Amino acid sequence: MHYVDPTYERHCAWMERALALADEAGQAGEVPVAAIVVDDENTLVAEAANYRQRGHDPTAHAEVLALRQAGQIRGNWNLTGCTLYVTLEPCPMCAGAIALSRVSLLVYGADDLKTGAIRSVLNIPDSPASNHRLAVLSGVLESRCREQLQQWFTQRRRNTNGERL
Asked: Is pLDDT of 3 > 80?
């Protein structure tokens, strides 16, 4: 009999939901990235997808929006005990917001080799500037997360005839 870690299965299930949200954002013209906040009882607290284009807001990354929503719903900015699921490794802005929110665990799909600030380019959680030690699990449904982004950018480039995105 093959043992399957139920915790990893739970992480995959939440990442599936994030991928679906990211797909909706991509169809609306946003870079397809989504974030979900789940509490320590595995209950959905908040979810969001990128909203920069539609909201004309450079800070409207999925992670920031999900953290804001979770703080409002819980009535507390301190999200200790929560897990944040994100389809793409967070950028420096989002990594800072994640550290400040005190989430207990960050789970993300694909590494961001250009602006990743968790492990790929920078390591904000383990930086002396971070006052919160964040547990990180990367690579959950990584190939699906990466493929979703690559397909979106490929399609976008075809539609814009090489114009800068």
From this structure: no
